[in-house]
Design a protein that fits this description.
The chain is mainly beta. It has strands spanning about 10-20, 25-30, 30-35, 35-40, 45-50, 55, 60, 65, 70-75, 85.
């Protein structure tokens, strides 16, 4: 289990989770690309996921810009309000 790093700042927040299709909607406050690994953390959430694909407006994209809300397929359950961190 990764230790919480004091200077680690969230790069986004989960705004919605679709359980039937295991997709989270994340609003990022920085740019992010497919292939990077992100960590979801919340009250009952703690898992990492390598971004295999992301979608914006139902179209595949290679990266998200600051302020953009994108859908990312995940293998675990996330919840609204969970923070998203970039794994180094």
């Amino acid at each position: 289990m990764p230790k919480k790093n004091a200077e680690e700042k969230p790069i986004g927040v989960v705004t919605h989770y679709f359980g039937g299709i295991n997709v989270v909607i994340v609003k990022f406050n920085t740019s992010i690309k497919v292939g990077e690994t992100i960590h979801f953390r919340g009250a009952t959430t703690d898992f990492s996921e390598k971004i295999k694909s992301m979608q914006y407006d139902h179209k595949d994209i290679e990266g998200a810009k600051k302020g953009q809300e994108v859908g990312i397929k995940v293998g675990d359950k996330a919840r609204e309000g969970d923070e998203v961190f970039l794994e180094k």
